[in-house]
Design a protein that fits this description.
The protein is an alpha+beta fold. It has helices at residues 3-14, 18-56, 105-112, 184-187, 228-238, 244-247, 263-275, 283-326, 328-336, 341-379, 396-413, 415-422, 426-431; strands spanning 61-67, 86-87, 99-101, 117-122, 130-132, 142-143, 154-157, 168-172, 191-197, 203-214, 223-226, 253-257, 278-281. Residues 87-97 have low confidence and may be disordered. It is a multi-pass membrane protein.
Length: 433
């Protein structure tokens, strides 16, 4: 019996006892279905987190602040006032502030000289008063930073061109209606006016072209994102009236490192920065704990699916043991006609694998259909505030891996019955009643 005939015989023998085989397939189906849903849940959430990380910063970028000399923990009580310190972004419970030492030219040179730092530039924080289109009503808006490697989640248009000399901006989709745009596509190429107030309380207006419209996400919710040319122009206008010492003082800097750096090399760079008196963080670190929690939840859910598969494996053992017993005389006849023990073993192993394939393929297929339906329903209801999130997403490689794993479990479950059939004595088997 050649391999093709062996496979054909195994497929045909699988449904000799239809009820028993179908019940076994259903048991495998439950495990494969659950595993597909839980795996899709992890894929969807992690994909959303990855997109969010890309929208908040690049993978090869660190945000660096200089530790103030009088830096203390909030629980230590009031902090002594330092006239040279800079109040940075809030970091902690409401009402707390993050006081850091200013970063100037000397500190930028120091950062550039640290081993592992490829490039460094000051983070120019801009506070925009308002945005308006075509002389219309002005609306308050924040401004976010944009560095090479970031990927904003866009509803239309393109990413800002960092190297362009013209003023470009990406606006959030929540501003389309109030600025008078019919949809995201209508805003592309249109001019908007950004207003800032300088240190002398003089108002400055800078016109920029909308090159993209960003979808709301964890990374960009209500901020405009300028290219470098526009950000520099806004910062220059905002800084009018400041003396030289104030101009050369930034609350934080952006540090680039080699994107091919290993985790140990990044950790070593962070340690070197800490030794030099700097705090550093990557965007991935900001969301790392959240991602770990999600992975843990998915792992627990996958464990339940694996338990279901293990229970189904006992069904495979029972089905094939019963099949071996019922076909004892047939096995004896096959061996008496020259069929070797290896082919007998292969025949029953293929039956187990085929049962596993049917259960896993059906479970994975229906799991994808159900998962897509659930994700679509939740996306328009409970998760409507998280646009861009596909709660349950499917990766073809992962689905194929699930099917292969289930088939492997089925093969292992079918080993015992297959060995028993292979070891059967042909003479004794022919005498079996």
């Amino acid at each position: 019996m050649n391999p093709v005939d062996l496979v054909g015989s195994a497929v045909g023998n699988t449904f000799r006892s239809k009820t028993r085989t179908i019940l076994t397939i259903l048991a495998i189906f439950v495990g494969a279905f659950t595993l597909t849903i839980t795996n899709g849940l992890g894929t969807g959430i992690n994909r959303y987190i990855d997109d969010t990380v890309a929208a908040m910063g690049a993978e090869d970028v660190m945000t660096v602040t200089k530790v103030a000399e009088n830096a203390t923990d909030a629980s230590d009580g009031p902090r002594e006032y330092d006239p040279d310190a800079i109040v940075g972004e809030q970091n902690g419970p409401p009402g707390t502030t993050n006081v850091v030492a200013p970063i100037g030219s000397a500190e930028l040179d120091e950062l550039a000289g640290i081993d592992g730092v490829v490039r460094v530039q000051p983070a120019k924080r801009v506070d925009v008063d308002s945005i308006a289109h075509d002389g219309g009503t002005e609306y308050e808006i924040g401004v976010g930073g944009f560095v090479s490697g970031m990927r904003l989640q866009l509803a239309a248009g393109e990413q800002p061109d960092i190297e362009a000399s013209d003023f470009q901006v990406v606006i959030p989709d929540s501003y389309l209606d109030v600025l008078g745009f019919d949809d995201a596509d209508a805003a592309i190429g249109e001019p908007v006016t950004l207003a800032v107030t300088d240190a002398e309380r003089t108002r400055h207006e800078v016109e920029a072209t909308v090159v993209g419209v960003a979808e709301a996400s964890l990374g960009t919710t209500s901020s405009a994102v300028p290219n470098d040319a526009l950000n520099d122009a806004l910062f220059a206008a905002q800084s009018t009236g400041l003396d030289a010492s104030e101009l050369d003082a930034y609350s934080q800097a952006t540090v680039w490192f080699d994107p091919a750096s290993s985790a140990d090399e990044v950790a070593a760079l962070e340690a070197d920065l800490a030794d030099a008196g700097y705090d550093s963080t990557t965007v991935a670190q900001q969301l790392g704990a959240f991602k770990s929690v999600i992975d843990g939840i998915v792992l627990v859910l996958n464990a339940f699916a694996i338990i279901a598969l293990l229970a189904a494996s006992f069904g495979i053992v029972n089905t094939l043991l019963m099949s071996v017993q019922e076909r004892t005389r047939e096995i004896g006849l096959m061996k008496a006609m020259g069929m070797g023990s290896g082919k007998v073993f292969g025949l029953f192993s293929l039956e187990a694998v085929f049962i596993g394939f049917l259960g896993s393929a059906i479970g994975a297929g229906l799991g994808m259909i159900a998962g897509s339906a659930i994700s679509s329903a939740l996306g328009g209801a409970l998760l409507a505030d998280l646009p861009g999130l596909t709660l349950i997403a499917f990766d073809p490689v992962s689905i194929a891996a699930i099917i292969i794993v289930v088939m492997g479990v089925a093969f292992l479950a079918g080993t015992l019955p297959a060995v028993r059939a292979a070891r059967a004595d042909p003479v004794e088997s022919l005498r079996y009643e």
